[in-house]
Amino acid sequence: MIGEITKAHYDQILRINEHFVHWLAPMDRVELEYVLDIASYARQINAAQGVLIGYSDAAAYPDHENMKWLSKKFDRFFYIDRVIVDERALGCGYGRLLYEDIENFARTSGYPRLTCEVNICPDNPGSHRFHERMGFRPCGDHIYKPGVKEVRYYEKPL
C-alpha cells in the first residue's frame, strides 16, 4: 500500500498540494521534482491519496527556512517537510500509516528524533492535534511574517 513516488503520481500530488496551499508552500512540477531529488524519504499511499516527503538533517536544501531553524536547535534530526492527504481520503488513516512508516525509516537510519512544523498562522488545529496524538511535542515557534506566516515546530524523540 505504501510505495515510492513515481512520475505517474505527480499530477495527483500537485492537485492535492494546491487544495491545501493555504497551509503548504505552493509547488509546481519543477519544484516537486527538485524536492523529490533531494528528499531522503518520499513515499505515497494508495495512488498518492496520501504523500509524505522528508529530509535528513544533512539534506542539500540551503534556502529551506524550517531546516535552518531546526539545524540551530538540533544536531541530528529527520525533518518531515510535506505531508498531504487527498480531501477525499481524510479519515482513512493514511497520515498515521505514513507517519509510522517514516518513524520506522528514521529510527532504523539512526536519527534520534523526527521534526516538523505546523502553521499557527494561518492556524491548522487539526494538524496540531494529529501530531500531538502521534507523540510529537512542541519545541519552538517562529514568526516569518507577523499575522501571515507563523509556525510551531514539533519533535518526537525516537
Question: What can you tell me about this protein's structure?
Answer:
There is one protein chain. The longest helix is centred in the middle third of the chain and has 15 residues. This protein has a seven-stranded mixed β-sheet with strand order 1-2-3-4-5-7-6, sandwiched between helices. The protein starts with a strand and ends with a strand. It contains five helices and seven strands; from the N terminus they run βααββαβαβαββ. The protein has 158 residues and is an alpha+beta fold. It has one domain: Gcn5-related N-acetyltransferase (GNAT) (Aminopeptidase, 3-Layer(aba) Sandwich). Helix content is 34%, strand content 32%.
Provide a short characterization of the protein structure:
The chain is of the alpha+beta class and 158 residues long. The chain has helices at residues 10-19, 29-38, 65-73, 94-108, 125-133, and strands at residues 2-4, 41-45, 50-56, 78-85, 113-121, 137-145, 149-157. The protein has a single domain (2-115), classed as Aminopeptidase, CATH 3.40.630.
Kindly report the name of the CATH homologous superfamily: Gcn5-related N-acetyltransferase (GNAT)
Which CATH architecture would you pick? 3-Layer(aba) Sandwich
> SSE string, helix = H, strand = E?
EHHEEHEHEHEE
Q: What percentage of amino acids are in beta strands?
A: 25-35%
Ends apart, CA distance between termini:
24 Å
